[in-house]
Here is the input.
Amino acid sequence: MNPHHEKWSFVAVLAIGIALKLLLLATSQSMPDGDEAVEGLMAMHMLRDGVHRLYPYGVRYGAGAGVETHAAAALFAVAGPSGVALKTVGLVVWSLSLLLLIAIVRKRLGQRAALLAGALYAVSPAGCQWAMKVGGGHQIAVALGLLTWWLNETVDSRKTPALAWLVPLVALAHPIAAPFALFLAGSQWLRTSARLRPWYVASLALAVCLELLLLAPTESGVWDPSAASLAVSRIPLALGAVATSFFSPNLNGRHCRDLVEAGGAIVWLTVLCASLWALRRDRELLASVICTIGVVVMVNVDLLVPRHLLLLHPIGCMAIAQAVYRRPGRQRAAICAGLITLGLIAHVRETRSPYVYGPAPQHNGVSRAEFRTIIDTLQSQGIKHVYSLDPMLQWNVMFATNERILARWKNPADRVPRYARLVDQARLNGEPIAVVGDFRDRAPPGTPQKLGLVLQPDQTVIGDTFPLSSQYPQGAAEVPPSGITEK
Here is the structure.
């Protein structure tokens, strides 16, 4: 390929990928989910109160969230707090991962394979939502992992010990990348000459100790999805359910939303599996895939969802590109055209989605229109304190109103207990309160939440559902809401 044409081909892939994501950001991805709203509040507190944190409120993992929230705070300082500004941080990180993926494949396989891998990553259905997510450092872990892999490929082997400090950072960014960090360390060790390997081991051990010492979380946590025991017999079924929906837009749920989405996801997964079989002699690639999937032994099997395999997304696109590129011309063109078409269809359909998809109950979808109606009603009624039936919706409410409305969940020992105490105090003072959430007793799996609002809840019923925070000990993150003091 002509160098001039090569440059503009890569620019076109990047431009198309970003254009598709900007279209989504202006439509279905304009509102953050619950976890993203937590980071939005953290960024607001950083600007207003100077509270700097690495880990999300209430958890002791995912230091990559600190990078995301600091970047969001910088955008908020210029454009003001908003869902679009918050999720733009995710888009920037995703764009960096796209560039790194192209650079890795170009180094390993050449420019045409790199162009194909970049095109697949740019349009993959798995990126429809997660190219703009800022949830707990997931994307930071992916970008750091790809950066380390690229440096492994390009840096002189005599300097490999100097790269050891990146490996623990990959795992600290988010635990989903911990098994992949082992692959990166092994790759660095193999690239190091026998004479320097003891220095590499010493450098890696020192990096792990120093970074754990400097970056270890200081506060307690209220949410820990890690596996308490290894449920070996249940892992294959859970992994199978997760894999079938991995190439779908919603990586927070185990199911696809309809037959069109399921069909596209199965086709992409089938091509990936066939590619891995065709590349079974490529030990490095297979090791990276195995280590990526290794996260299944770390997560509670009942909580395993496709986002835990997020690193498989760029690596999978790399594998498909490498295998497809070896096929005869017509077969290669047909496979590429089919996958790219399915990806574009997924992106177009996602622009029309009226729902926000997030963790916990939000994986079934929260209607943006219903949520805006509820916020408008609360503000028109002058209600400043809300009880939420959904453990994630409370964060949406507070971020959307810039904390003009405070909210708490059923359990007062939540991520920021002070919110619970302030809402309870308003209730005890006789101030107007409301209850928001999904009020249906039962609904089929995958059915979007039907948000409701009760403006004058019965005090007896609300007392049973939302016990006062005074009945519980102090909880995790004692970070005050911005500009608010307890009464």
